[in-house]
Design goal:
2 strands; single chain; two-stranded antiparallel ribbon; 44 residues; 2 helices; alpha+beta
Length: 44
């Protein structure tokens, strides 16, 4: 975890698209929380 200039913590999650497509809808997982509460910074 890194802190931004404002001091708020950040977490970066890097996963394969196939993994996200398979497991992204599973409620109660970190991946689901990241997809629903976070934001996508880049896609390839």
């Amino acid at each position: 975890m890194r802190s931004t200039r404002s001091g708020w913590p950040q977490t970066f999650v890097v996963l394969a698209r196939e993994y996200v497509e398979e497991w992204g809808d599973v409620s109660g997982t970190m991946l689901h929380d990241a997809l629903t509460e976070g934001r996508v910074l880049a896609e390839t």
